[in-house]
């Protein structure tokens, strides 16, 4: 009984061993390559439980599991040089998947995913360097960046297709200047900004001088025009004043001569005036004689007239009783009479006060 039990136990264990060695499971994230003595028998891409020949230990049938999902490989801190000689530090990655497991197994030694990834990264590195080397310094930082990624992808795809790999996408995640290039770039940008500031400052100074010159010219024109208008108005007022005085004094020519003589006496015989030696019979003292307009009886030189001048605006003047009557002694003076300038001829009166003296009876 014991021998039979052990025999049955051995058979059961052997059966379980053969069954376990003949079955394999493929999940949804994998694909299986079934090999028999190193040759590919079939590729299983659908998830499930599958059967193969046992004796895996003797290489009768073996199963290699390969990923059936998107894979990613990164390049970090890759230093590239552009056409102008400047250098960038680039980070990039590629996304791919094993599309043809049979081709992948035959193209890659032992079907190693690490070997395939290394080959792709080597080609990816070369494509990045070639693409950046054909561009200018600022191309990677402009709208041409998308075009550069497409160009890199197209260069790597043939290599990936030869390995049974489908290259889905390539992205450049970072493009930075090296520290040396960054310092030079910042220095150049600062110099350009300073130059621009100096240019704007110079243009502002030029505009300020132009505005100042225009303003000064306009101010000079305004002042000159105002002075011209003032001179015109002053001349018109002076002409009107002279015409008014001429009309007033023209009414009595004898009174005008007497008034001007009184002004001359005031200027010549004042206390602060110069000393003069004149004959009493001089025509200058004609109004000090009996036949003068004022009827004065004094005949001595230097004697004041009967009605001496009291101030700059007052003068003693007689009023004739009738045009044909003899002059009488003055008994009244015009109120607030303003003297005319000395030296004006009797028949053409010059400047005189605006107020017209009016003789009284």
Share of helical residues: 40-55%
The span between the termini is 188 Å
Contiguous uncertain segments of 5+ residues: 292-361
Tell me about the biggest sheet? Answer: 3 strands, antiparallel
- The gross shape turns out to be rod-shaped
Which strands sit side by side, in order, in the main sheet?
Answer: 3-2-5
Radius of gyration: 64 Å
- List the domain count as a whole number: 4
Q: Pairing-aware structural class of the strands and helices?
A: alpha+beta
- Write down the overall mean pLDDT: 75
| Helix-strand pattern | HEEEEEEEHHHEHH
* Number of H/I helices: 6
The overall strand count is: 8
What percent strand?
15-25%
Description:
It is a single-pass membrane protein. This protein has 361 residues and is α+β, with helices and mostly antiparallel strands. It is built from 6 helices and 8 strands, in the order H-E-E-E-E-E-E-E-H-H-H-E-H-H. Strands 3-2-5 form a 3-stranded antiparallel sheet, with helices on one face. A 3-stranded antiparallel sheet has the order 6-7-8. The protein has a two-stranded antiparallel ribbon with strand order 1-4.
């Amino acid at each position: 009984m014991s021998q039979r039990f052990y025999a049955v136990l051995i058979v059961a264990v052997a059966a379980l061993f053969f069954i376990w060695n003949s079955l394999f499971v493929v999940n949804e994230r994998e694909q299986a390559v079934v090999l028999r003595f190193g040759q590919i028998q079939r590729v299983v891409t659908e998830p499930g439980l599958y059967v193969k020949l046992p004796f895996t230990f003797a290489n009768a049938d073996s199963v290699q599991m390969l990923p059936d999902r998107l894979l990613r490989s990164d390049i970090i801190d890759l230093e590239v040089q552009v056409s102008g000689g400047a250098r960038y530090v680039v980070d990039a990655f590629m996304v791919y998947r094993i599309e043809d497991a049979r081709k992948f197994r035959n193209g890659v030694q032992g079907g190693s995913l690490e070997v395939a990834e290394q080959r792709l990264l080597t080609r990816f590195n070369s494509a990045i360097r070639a693409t950046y080397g054909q561009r200018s310094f600022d191309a990677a930082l402009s709208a041409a960046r998308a075009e550069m990624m497409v160009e890199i992808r197209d260069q790597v795809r043939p290599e990936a297709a030869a390995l049974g790999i489908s290259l889905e996408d390539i992205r450049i995640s970072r493009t930075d200047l090296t520290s040396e290039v960054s310092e030079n770039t910042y220095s150049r940008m600062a110099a350009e900004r300073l130059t621009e500031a100096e240019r704007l400052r110079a243009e502002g100074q030029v505009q300020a001088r132009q505005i100042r010159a225009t303003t000064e010219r306009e101010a000079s024109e305004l002042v000159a025009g105002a002075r011209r208008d003032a001179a015109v108005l002053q001349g018109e007022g002076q002409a009107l004043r002279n015409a008014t005085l001429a009309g007033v004094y023209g009414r009595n020519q004898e009174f005008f001569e007497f008034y001007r003589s009184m002004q001359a006496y005031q200027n010549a015989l004042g206390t602060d005036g110069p000393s003069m030696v004149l004959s009493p019979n001089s025509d200058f003292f004609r109004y000090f004689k009996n036949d003068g307009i004022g009827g004065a009886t004094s005949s001595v030189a230097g004697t004041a007239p009967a009605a001496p001048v009291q101030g700059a605006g007052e003068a003693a003047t007689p009023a004739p009783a009738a045009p044909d009557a003899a002059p009488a002694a003055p008994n009244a003076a015009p109120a607030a009479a303003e003297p005319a300038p000395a030296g004006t001829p009797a028949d053409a009166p010059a400047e005189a006060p605006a107020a017209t003296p009016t003789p009284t009876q």
